[in-house]
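**User:** Once you have settled down, spend some time on the protein underneath, comparing sequence with structure tokens, and judge whether sequence predicts the tokens.
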Amino acid sequence: MTRNPIDKVGLIIVGDEILNGRRQDLHFEYTMELCREWNAGVAYTLVLPDEMDVMVAHFKWAMAQPYPFFSCGGIGSTPDDITRQAAAAAAGVGIEQHVEAVRILKERYGDEATEPRLRMVTFPVGSTLVPNPVNRVPGFHIANGYFLPGFPSMAAPMMRWILEHHYTAGAARLRCTLILDNAREADMTDLMEAFVADYPTVTFSSLPTYTETGPRVTLSISAITQTAETAYADLQQRLTAAAIPFRVE
């Protein structure tokens, strides 16, 4: 099986229960942990309602991105579980019972592999399976999307399986942070814009806060280790030249 390098992953969480607060999301935290292991970043996180038009539009957008994404939720057998239909519509294909998945369910449930249970393995045409080590009901993979259950206890090991079997870790990354006490972003706009233009592969962030002693700006960069080290040293030199005091976090 070919394994591709990965540097970013998207995360889509489906379910009205997240949006109305009946359930707290845990997928984001685990995805972040996995990404750190694989030296990858979370490109985006979307939380979507159980609405077909909204889901189709966002799945189409995600499928057009140059990196894979996980979608968690909406692949059960209840009426609000419409993720499979939305994924099929976004991919421009129909849906059908997946032959291998049907075999797995019949082996797992025997005579209890009823029509409602078999709905759980009605997937977009052309899908491949993502094994579920908890109850053996698989998720599916279509285009660059991996569609998983809404239960974190199932989705988490399935995400790990996907990364272990389909992707290799990205290059080691380094995150560096500087604290600028009594500083304001507006006074450093030109400096920051020039820095970002000179280092397009570096992820840069500026976070202003207010403390008991006055305003504070936290500057952070993240990149492949060698690039980050070079950019970090340069950023410190630019701040020094501009007479802006800083301290290393």
Notes: The mean pLDDT is 94. Residues 173-248 form a domain with the Alpha-Beta Plaits fold (CATH 3.30.70.270).
